[in-house]
């Protein structure tokens, strides 16, 4: 878990929570169902991604949870793949949004192949819901590298997470650069308000020639 001093977690936060409470994933899924039943809008991130995308775009929902973002996008005609490390959440996504493709996997080892055995490319990758801060410190750079590897030549990665979760925005930007990504724009909300200290929505593109990686 994130340290009391706000330091980066040494263990994947989601896996630690599930180990502590085996019903954690079920409770999480029910929480989003309750939001929907109460009439709350839970699709703000998805609407932004849809506005950035050509019709029928290839979109990866990285850390998709129950599929609320990728599922909404698939229902609007996009070719969506969602990946999450929790099998229960993926089962919910498959049931609720059968028009998308859902896979169990860790972003730090992400490798989605196409029919020829090459890495699948995506026009947009969305990583919302504080997913990056759930990753253990040693998983963060590999996850960014893996997502960068799945970007099409003009593709963009959109990442959103809050402050105070053990991942300083400056450190995130540095990791992104090391992964071969450049920060093109950043905002404080999914409605594109100006940058602020409490939340970041970062739009990143692939650097054509990635910088040398540290050994």
Provide a descriptive summary of the structure in words.
- With 215 residues, the chain is of the alpha/beta class.
- The chain has one domain: Vaccinia Virus protein VP39 (Rossmann fold).
- It has eight helices and seven strands.
- It has helices at residues 13-20, 24-37, 44-52, 68-74, 87-96, 131-134, 137-149, 169-178; strands at residues 58-62, 79-84, 101-104, 122-127, 151-162, 181-187, 199-206.
- Strands 3-2-1-4-5-7-6 form a seven-stranded mixed β-sheet, with helices on both faces.
- Helix 3 crosses helix 4 (68-74).
- The model has no long low-confidence stretch (mean pLDDT 94).
CATH superfamily: Vaccinia Virus protein VP39
Span of the ends, CA to CA: 26 Å
Q: Tell me, what is the CATH class?
A: Alpha Beta
- Named CATH topology: Rossmann fold
- Indicate the radius of gyration in whole angstroms: 16 Å
The low-confidence parts are: none
| Percentage beta strand | 15-25%
Rounded mean pLDDT score: 94
Output the helix-strand order. HHHEHEHEEHHEHEE
Tell me the domain tally: 1
Largest sheet, strands/sense/barrel:
7 strands, mixed
Biggest sheet strand order reads 3-2-1-4-5-7-6
Q: How many beta-strand elements?
A: 7
Structural class: alpha/beta
Summed up, the helix count is 8
Helix amount, in percent? 25-40%
CATH architecture: 3-Layer(aba) Sandwich
Write the layout of secondary structure elements.
Blueprint: H1 13-20, H2 24-37, H3 44-52, E1 58-62, H4 68-74, E2 79-84, H5 87-96, E3 101-104, E4 122-127, H6 131-134, H7 137-149, E5 151-162, H8 169-178, E6 181-187, E7 199-206
Parallel strand pairs: 1-2, 1-4, 2-3, 4-5
Antiparallel strand pairs: 5-7, 6-7
Helix pairs in contact: 3-4
């Amino acid at each position: 878990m994130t340290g009391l001093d706000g330091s980066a977690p040494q263990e994947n936060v989601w896996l630690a929570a599930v180990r502590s409470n085996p019903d954690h994933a079920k409770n999480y899924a029910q929480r989003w169902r309750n939001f929907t039943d109460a009439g709350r809008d839970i699709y703000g991130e998805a609407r932004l991604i849809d506005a950035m995308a050509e019709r029928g775009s290839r979109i990866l929902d990285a850390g998709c949870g129950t599929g609320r973002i990728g599922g909404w996008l698939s229902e609007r005609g996009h070719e969506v793949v969602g990946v999450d490390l929790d099998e229960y959440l993926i089962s919910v996504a498959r049931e609720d949004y059968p028009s998308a493709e859902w896979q169990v996997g860790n972003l730090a080892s992400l490798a989605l192949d196409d029919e020829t055995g090459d890495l699948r490319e995506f026009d947009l990758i969305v990583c919302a819901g504080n997913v990056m801060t759930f990753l253990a410190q040693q998983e963060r750079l590999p996850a960014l590298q893996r997502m960068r590897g799945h970007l099409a030549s003009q593709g963009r990665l959109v990442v959103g997470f809050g402050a105070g979760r053990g991942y300083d925005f400056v450190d995130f930007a540095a990791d992104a650069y090391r992964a071969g990504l450049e920060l093109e724009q950043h905002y404080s909300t999914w409605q594109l308000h100006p940058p602020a200290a409490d939340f970041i929505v970062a739009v990143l593109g692939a650097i054509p020639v990635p910088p040398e990686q540290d050994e």
